[in-house]
Amino acid sequence: MAFLMAVSSVIGRMSIGALFDYFFAPRVSIFAFLAAACGLILMITSNAIWPCYLFAITMGFGSGAESDVLGYLTSRYFGLKAFGRVYAWCSPASCLARR
Questions:
Q1: pLDDT of residue 98
Q2: Angle in degrees, 0-180, between the axes of helices 25-45 and 50-78, rounded to the nearest 10
Q3: Of 33, 48, 75, 78, which is the most exposed, with the fewest CB atoms less than 10 Å away?
Q4: How far apart are the first and last CA of the chain?
Q5: Residue 75 — φ and ψ, nearest 5°?
Q6: Intervals of the chain under pLDDT 70
Q7: H/E element, 49
Q8: What is the distance between the alpha carbons of residues 82 and 20, in angstroms, rounded to a whole number?
């Protein structure tokens, strides 16, 4: 399952970055995180093994997208002048929120 998460994380990073070029970034971000949430709900509510694989794929996709989303939206909404200061607070807060 770790392999599935790693591969889908790389795919998530690349695809989210490409989708940001064509679509409104907050909506793309919502899609990526809802996919991970749906995978989690499916895994929790099912007794079979296949939802665990689907969860690994969707969670990897969401976690890969998270790092791109955080940097992209921080630079767009706060500007490059304040990017370093804001990102320095957002990144540790994001890591703590996962725990």
A1: 64
A2: 160
A3: 48
A4: 20
A5: -70, -35
A6: 98-99
A7: none
A8: 21
pLDDT of residue 93: 74
59 phi/psi in degrees, rounded to 5 = -70, -40
Q: What pLDDT score does 86 carry? A: 87
Q: Which two tokens mark 80?
A: 């490059």
Beta strand spans in the chain (E): none
Amino acid at position 12, single letter: G
Q: Which of 49, 74, 52 is nearest to 4 (CA)?
A: 52
Instruction: Compute the distance between CA of residue 62 and CA of residue 31 in angstroms, rounded to an integer.
Output: 9
Phi, psi of 49 (to 5 degrees): -90, -30
Measured in whole angstroms, the distance separating CA 17 from the mean position of its chain's CA atoms is: 11
Task: Report the length, in residues, of the chain.
Answer: 99
